[in-house]
Amino acid sequence: MSVNIKIRDAVKKYGDNTIISDLSLDIKEGEFFTLLGPSGCGKTTLLRMIAGFNSIEGGDFYFGDTRINDMDPAKRNIGMVFQNYAIFPNMTVEKNVAFGLKNRKLPKEEIASKTDQFLKLMKIDEYRDRMPERLSGGQQQRVALARALAITPDVLLMDEPLSNLDAKLRVEMRTVIKQIQNDVGITTVYVTHDQEEAMAVSDRIAVMNAGDIQQIGTPKVLYQRPANLFVATFIGHTNVIDAKLINDNGKAYLELPGGHKVLVDTIRKEEIYDRKVKASIRPEELVVDRDSKEGIKAIIDDAVFLGLNTHYFVHFEDGETAEIVQESQIDSIIEKSSVIYLGVKTEKINVFDESGSYNLVEGVVNDLDVYKKEA
């Protein structure tokens, strides 16, 4: 039976060094929730606090209505999948999967039944008599996942489970993990620094930096309307361009490189006044206009053909650089050193204050805001 997880005002310290301060979070029952951020941001520390492997210096952690701060890790009914698989090298696949069930002293028939169920669910039934040394990395990770799920945990915790796999296996395994999580319906907390991986598997994502959560939302929300410049640059690729916001009779215009101005209808009314800003324009939001000389003037430095799309790397007259993604043309790729003019899909771009601390456009959703209101 999965549970919801509630964290309020969490604090983690190592001596005088505070790693996490005043962090609050709600994870829904049955949700696939990802902690995403760069190395050292506190995501694994938070996961280990949930698991009971790290001490808690402040705040409250709940599984459902049960406060777990002082609960022994063995009694929290969690399944754990680690970066290095942590399966027992001296046991067969079958015995690895059955290990947690035997520890719980379940009847032999139930152990055999559940072990068989999860061997088949993870599609490793044919390897049940193999030793781990004879398995590929992906197969070993399937064993680790089967072992974690076989005990029917309330919560599944996964710490960078795919980072040791090659690129092709990572894509394959993240699909497997998401499908299994959907089938089993277990509350899952997943840690990764890979934003593409996070977007592929998550119901919601918490983007972390320096021990703080920057934004919580669905992959689509984070990509389309990031709360600040850190989230915009960490989720997907984006071009960050120095620009000016101009108020012209209550309408917001963005002055881009070369003095090109575009009307931006999405700026919140209270934010429309003259100032310097940062424009976040994703590569697919810059459009090459081959037929006119209107728009942002740019010079092509390089072109990379990737089948469906071609990536162009350009610089503007002021020296700023940008990346553009265009659907590949049948006739030709635009040659290096060519002068082009760019239009902007203004309804999709994001505009931040000069420091990048908040987004000026309408429609920014941050599930973190509920905790600020509580405070």
Describe the structure.
- The protein contains nine helices and 20 strands.
- It has helices at residues 43-51, 93-103, 108-121, 137-150, 167-184, 195-201, 219-224, 229-234, 369-374; strands at 5-14, 17-27, 32-36, 58-63, 66-67, 78-81, 155-159, 187-192, 204-209, 212-217, 239-248, 251-255, 261-263, 275-281, 286-289, 296-306, 309-316, 321-327, 339-344, 350-353.
- Strands 6-7-8-3-9-10 form a six-stranded mixed sheet, with helices on both faces. Strands 13-12-11-14-20 form a five-stranded antiparallel sheet. Strands 15-19-16-17-18 form a five-stranded antiparallel sheet, with no helix packed on it.
- Helix 3 (108-121) crosses helix 4.
Overall residue-averaged pLDDT value: 93
CATH second-level architecture of the largest domain = 3-Layer(aba) Sandwich
Task: Provide the domain count.
Answer: 2
Shape: globular
What structural category characterises the helix and strand content? Answer: alpha+beta
- The CATH homologous superfamily of the largest domain is named P-loop containing nucleotide triphosphate hydrolases
> Strand arrangement, largest sheet?
6-7-8-3-9-10
The poorly predicted ranges are none
What name is given to the CATH topology of the largest domain? Rossmann fold
Largest sheet: 6 strands, mixed
Helix proportion of residues, in percent?
A: 10-25%
Q: SSE order in H/E notation?
A: EEEHEEEHHHEHEHEEHHEEEEEEEEEEH
Total of DSSP H or I helical runs spanning 4+ residues: 9
CATH domain class of the largest domain: Alpha Beta
Q: What percentage of amino acids are in beta strands?
A: 25-35%
Rounded Rg: 25 Å
Gap from first CA to last CA: 31 Å
Total beta strand runs? 20
